Amino acid sequence: YVAGCTGWTGTFEGYKDGAPLAIGSEVILALGESSTNGQYFLGDAIITGVHANVAFDGVVTYSYDFTGAGALEMPWA
Fold first, then answer.
1. Is pLDDT at 76 greater than 80 in this prediction?
2. 31-74 confidence digits (pLDDT tens)
3. Strands, E, within the chain: which ranges?
4. Are 58 and 6 in contact (CB under 8 A)?
5. For the chain, which terminus, N or C, has the lower number of CB atoms within 10 Å?
6. Model pTM?
7. CA 10 vs CA 1, 42, 49, 67, 73: distances in Å
8. Contact 21, 14 (CB under 8 A)
9. Quick one: how far is CA 58 from the chain centroid?
10. Beta-carbon count within 10 A of 47 CB
11. Rg (CA), the chain
């Protein structure tokens, strides 16, 4: 994250829980810092890709690509 930067993208993955998000869905992300407990960035994002994965044991996960739709905010500041 660079102060004033509004272009950010990323990917997240998780276990299937209900219907997957659709491409074009608008979401709010809370991006936590691993080195500082309780601090995170908030931002609006748009889902740009959805990828289903099935492991050999039948566990289904989805990974999502996203693009930020504005600046990240630091709510603890």
1. no
2. 887 666 677 888 999 999 999 988 888 888 899 999 998 888 88
3. 9-15, 26-32, 40-54, 60-68
4. no
5. C
6. 0.75
7. 12, 14, 10, 7, 16
8. no
9. 24
10. 17
11. 14
